[in-house]
TrEMBL record:
Family annotation (PANTHER family): PTHR40261, RIESKE DOMAIN-CONTAINING PROTEIN
This protein's name: Rieske 2Fe-2S domain-containing protein
Domain Rieske: residue ranges: 2-103
UniProt xrefs under PROSITE patterns: RIESKE (PS51296)
């Protein structure tokens, strides 16, 4: 595991993008729990966001790909709507310890 950032950098209901060792990923906090995924849409393999750190839909309930609007569950990355429905984002194992977020890349 390697440190990604301080825990308080990702507030409740917020998402944040990172690049570590050439790997693009993002993290989302929902109901206190942190989830991390590779920043790669299963549809075309491109980054999900158009604006920095904007990975969620307007309601903040789902992860959204800005290119064609695919929607993914925050909890498991499953695509529930859009051109890659039935596929999933690639999860990055993460945990919080000592006030920091740690990821396994
Ligand atoms: S590239 Fe993400 S929905 Fe098409």
């Amino acid at each position: 595991m390697r440190a990604l950032c301080h825990s308080d950098l990702i507030a409740e209901g917020q998402s944040k993008g990172f690049e570590r060792d050439g790997v693009r990923l993002f993290a989302v906090r929902k109901q206190g729990k942190l989830y991390a995924y590779r920043n790669e849409c299963p549809h075309l393999g491109i980054n999900l966001e158009w604006l920095d750190d904007q990975f969620l839909d307007a309601d903040g309930c789902l992860i959204q790909c800005a290119m064609h609007g695919a929607l993914f569950l925050i909890e498991d990355g499953q695509c529930i709507s859009g051109p890659c429905q039935g596929q999933a984002l690639q999860a990055v194992p993460c945990e919080e310890r000592d006030g920091k977020v740690w990821v396994a890349l």
